[in-house]
Amino acid sequence: PLEPVVGAHAVAAAPGGDAPAALDAEMGSRPAGHRGVRTAMLGIACAALVGVFGGSVLVPSAFVERDLSGIAILPSFGVGALLAGSIVTLVYAGVRRTRGEDVEWGNAAVIPAGIASGVVWNAGNACS
Fold it and tell me: What is the pTM of this model?
């Protein structure tokens, strides 16, 4: 079973595993107060960036002729999302490898959920 997202990390527990214990081990032996403030600040910063970037998604379409905007912009939006997602994934993999960590590419069982999430996300783009 999967455990819910805790703090800035998602911990998937194997059957019979203990996700909270894994999270505690991952966070190390720092004082709880320090860990909480740092995690809260990281969460606030990430939430602010999500708001800025999410709210700016359609700003580039303001620079396109009016008859060429709207749903007509979605194919190029999809290409941009594919390119940006690929770059982020490659940077993530590079950072993990630089640290000597394994790169986890996921499990085939999550592919349908990922595709469904992408479809829902793009349906929202089409409706905006």
Answer: 0.52
> For each of the chain's 128 residues, which pLDDT tens digit applies?
444 444 444 444 444 445 555 555 555 555 555 678 889 999 999 999 999 988 888 788 888 887 777 778 878 888 998 899 899 989 999 999 999 998 877 788 888 898 899 889 878 877 76
Type of residue found at 114: G
Cα separations (Å) of 4 from 31, 67, 93, 96? 23, 44, 24, 23
Query: Using an 8 Å Cβ cutoff, are 126 and 71 in contact?
Result: yes
Query: Whole-angstrom Cα distance, residue 89 to residue 72?
Result: 27
